[in-house]
Amino acid sequence: KEDISLSVDICKASIHGVSAQVQRERDGRKRILRRCKNNEAAKRSRDARRLKENQISVRAAFLERENAALRQEVSDMRKELGRCRNILNKYESHHDSFLLKVGISCLQRTHLFIGI
């Protein structure tokens, strides 16, 4: 295989009027340069991915804390609603019995007045 690549190098070199050795050095430098550029691009890509992952982690932690706070607020509000319902029920039961007493006495008076 090396003979083939050497022949290709010689062909390239003869076309361009450059020796095979010089052509191999140029190809080697180009390859190294491409490799360096690729390594830098890969590093930038990894860094960008890490940054995005960190941002997502921070956002997720914030949302988890906010969710816990909202759940606590809902729980507190449900307790408060229960207390308000209890107060309302007590008021209604007291108020209803009062209305029944007042209503019966009014009805009795009306019946007495009318003569029923």
TrEMBL record:
A GO term from the CC aspect: nucleus
The BZIP domain, residue ranges: 28-91
Pfam families: bZIP_2
Gene3D superfamilies hit by this protein: 1.20.5.170
Any one GO molecular function term: DNA-binding transcription factor activity, RNA polymerase II-specific
First-listed, main subcellular location of the protein, grouped into a coarse class: nucleus
UniProt subcellular location: Nucleus
Superkingdom field: Eukaryota
CDD domains in the cross-refs: bZIP_HLF (cd14695)
InterPro entries associated with the record: bZIP (IPR004827), bZIP_sf (IPR046347), PAR_bZIP (IPR040223)
Residues forming coiled coils: 53-80
Keywords, ordered alphabetically: Coiled coil, DNA-binding, Nucleus, Transcription, Transcription regulation
Family of this protein: Belongs to the bZIP family. PAR subfamily.
Protein name: BZIP domain-containing protein
Gene source species: Cyprinus carpio (Common carp)
